[in-house]
């Protein structure tokens, strides 16, 4: 944004119409500072920026912005600008994961976005309030190595299409050990669809446990139901790999292995394939050792994260 040029009056005669001085406040707020507002070049006051302070953390598999204090703001009003040596991209707030059950970004909450970086890579992040174009936080840091243990969601989910139709969602779980882990049950809940519907093309829930995409071979796990069977995912449906449906098998993910989980396909209230872009999906995984892991993910609005 370039500020207007103010011209000094001439030596002879001064017009009765005095030029309006346009004040342009450029808000570039560093991490932990309080946001302000800007004026546009037409002199009209834009929407005031939220008065809030934000801190940021950069890891090799995600970035995090924590609301440290001040007013709340609806996540739909925010976007993230990510700059690395290879790319610059603008990310809708909806493509990340916000603490809490509503869309309001309030003090104490953290927003997470799947940003893959090489440990030590320099990453610049700007959290922007779109209406005012105020930068609420700016941070430039080298990505830090993430500490891993157990079965972890790889901060990546994708919506696929089958014959041009949406409704197919996949994500990864990596076993960082120690030891192998076997999944006994999986509970699936989402706000983006009514049902998970079995089709003749694929089983509704499939775990490619060794990530080799060689299906229906151990240690993969899957549960097949009668084609057309609907599993209600609005309140959460639990699939028992040892007893639910047919062709069942409990998937075992070896230490150090990344499993690929396919859910096909989600359908809407009319039974049509559901567009899962932007949907929140919560997965509870019960392991054979008696522990339960919960993973909450947001299906990206683009090609995946």
Secondary-structure element order, N to C: EEEEEEEEEEEEEEEEEEEEEEEE
Mean pLDDT across residues: 82
Please count the helical segments: 0
Rg on CA atoms, Å? 24 Å
Spatial separation of the terminal alpha carbons: 31 Å
The tally of beta strands, per DSSP, is 24
Instruction: Report the top-level CATH class of the largest domain.
Output: Mainly Beta
Share in β-strands: 35-45%
CATH third-tier fold name of the largest domain? Immunoglobulin-like
Helix proportion of residues, in percent? under 10%
Please tell me the total number of domains.
Answer: 2
Structural class: mainly beta
Adjacency order of strands in the biggest sheet: 11-12-21-15-16-19
Named at the architecture level, the CATH assignment of the largest domain is: Sandwich
What brief labels describe this structure?
single chain; 305 residues; mainly beta; Immunoglobulin-like; 2 domains; 6-stranded antiparallel β-sheet; 5-stranded antiparallel β-sheet; 24 strands
